[in-house]
Amino acid sequence: MDGKETLMKEQIPFIEVREVHKWYGKVHAVKGASFTINQGEIIGLIGDNGAGKSTLIKILAGYHRPDAGEIYIQGERVNIKSPAHARSLGIETVYQEQALVDLMSVTRNFFMGREITTRGGFLDFRKMDAECMDVIRTMGLSISSPKTLVKQLSGGEKQGVAIGRAMYFKAKLVLLDEPTRNLSVKEVQKVLDFIKNLKELGIAAIFVSHNIYHVFDVSDRFLVMARGELIKDAQKETTTIEELISVITRH
């Protein structure tokens, strides 16, 4: 690939959503959503309860199929069929529940469903432990052993493990669904730092939260939803927290 082709590829958004709709019976949960996300761009997806944020995230994560519309990844149309398919496309999801198993170790959670095996087909715990701890140290998490049970971690540490897992598996887009909910002030700041780290690595993210102050701190751009529609798309430098709150409350 020559320099011109490389530049053209870099200019193509990582993901483009065109006129996506989703119905649940008679409920029109997402109404013609259209937007793009560039590589390394942090998007704050905000809106009141029932705005359609979680439905839109679940479509991108492969949990729901859209009823109409198109999704493109790096210029190619895709039909995201499942969460596993989404991961194969470079889309990882971090839920508020962290999707971690409390009674399993950090390593087992880190590689769940994507375990490293030896040539003989056995689980390679030594390698998985080492790889897991490399990521944990890189993220500045104070977890002393990869064999630590997840139930022994704080809320912020759990989110750190989930975000670190997405980074390890070379995500290109991380979907963050309420990652700071029910966390202490100190833990919230740690998670926000993790999100900033994604940007430094060139990884895009959609940050969904009811706390607009958390979103505003780390996002480059904001998508505001109301009653299933995207009603505002604004760059950080062209808006304020007060304006975004006003848009949400008016609808």
Would you mind describing this structure in some detail?
The protein is α/β, with parallel strands linked by helices and 251 residues long. Helices cover 36% and strands 25% of the residues. It has 9 helices and 10 strands. The strands form 2 sheets. It has a 6-stranded mixed sheet, with helices on both faces. β4 and β5 form a beta hairpin. α6 (155-168) packs parallel to α7. The radius of gyration is 19 Å and the shape is globular. The mean pLDDT is 92.
Walk across the major sheet and give the strand order. Answer: 6-7-8-3-9-10
Average pLDDT works out at 92
**Helical run tally:** 9
Q: Beta-strand level of the residues, as a percent range? A: 25-35%
Q: Cα-atom Rg, whole angstroms?
A: 19 Å
Structural classification: alpha/beta
Number of strand segments: 10
Low-confidence stretches: none
What is the share of helical residues? 25-40%
Order of helices and strands: HEEEHEEHEHHHEHEHEEH
Categorize the overall geometry. Answer: globular
Largest sheet: 6 strands, mixed
Terminal-residue CA separation:
48 Å
Task: Please give the structural blueprint.
Blueprint: H1 3-11, E1 15-24, E2 27-37, E3 42-47, H2 53-61, E4 68-73, E5 76-78, H3 83-88, E6 91-94, H4 106-110, H5 125-138, H6 155-168, E7 173-177, H7 185-200, E8 204-208, H8 212-218, E9 221-226, E10 229-235, H9 241-250
Parallel strand pairs: 3-8, 3-9, 6-7, 7-8
Antiparallel strand pairs: 1-2, 1-4, 4-5, 9-10
Helix pairs in contact: 6-7
Entry summary:
Helix content is 36%, strand content 25%. It has 251 residues and is α/β, with parallel strands linked by helices. It has a six-stranded mixed beta sheet, sandwiched between helices.
